[in-house]
Amino acid sequence: MTEEHTSPTEVAAGTTLLLVDDDGPFVRRLARAMESRGFTVEIAESVAEGLAKAKAAPPDYAVVDMRLEDGNGLDVIVALRTAREETRMIVLTGYGNIATAVNAVKLGAIDYLAKPADADEIFAALTRGPGDKPEMPENPMSADRVRWEHIQRVYEMCDRNVSETARRLNMHRRTLQRILAKRAPR
């Protein structure tokens, strides 16, 4: 697919979009918003369903939630990249951190957005040209957020092994589990 767009607020007719998110009300609202911008939308509410749809009909674009009830959305990113290399994908999650953002981009995502992201932000990220850069955030990360990001980076380096991460951080395993279960601090 070429990078042509009919206007800044919609895409060419027949452009396909796969939405993979286990939050049913959110994904249906997002689907309606993206359909109004010209996309032909498919919804998957699990990793298994996302993998099946990625293999059956690889889309032009995809929005994939990182944490799904049956697994990790990065598995869907890998399947999409394998099925169709030029699919433009973004990762959307309520548990955003630098380590998983880097991993998502290495696997083929073009952007990474933290929830709550609205349809306009998602559309802008999907259709942003290769040279276009997103705006810089106005506020720097808090000390709590920096600490949380470091913990997430070590967790990813340990292949999401809680015991090994706790050992490397010299932290009690249960304390680490509580930190990992919470949303990222602002």
Automatic annotation (TrEMBL):
Name of the molecule in the record: ActR/PrrA/RegA family redox response regulator transcription factor
Domain of life of the source: Bacteria
PROSITE patterns: RESPONSE_REGULATORY
Residue(s) carrying 4-aspartylphosphate: D65
Annotated ranges, domain Response regulatory: 16-130
Coiled-coil stretches noted in the UniProt entry, renumbered to this chain: none
Species, as recorded: Pseudohoeflea coraliihabitans
Pfam families to which the protein is assigned, alphabetical: Response_reg
PANTHER family found in the cross-reference section: REGULATOR OF RPOS, TWO-COMPONENT RESPONSE REGULATOR ORR33
Upper classification of the organism: Bacteria, Pseudomonadati, Pseudomonadota, Alphaproteobacteria, Hyphomicrobiales
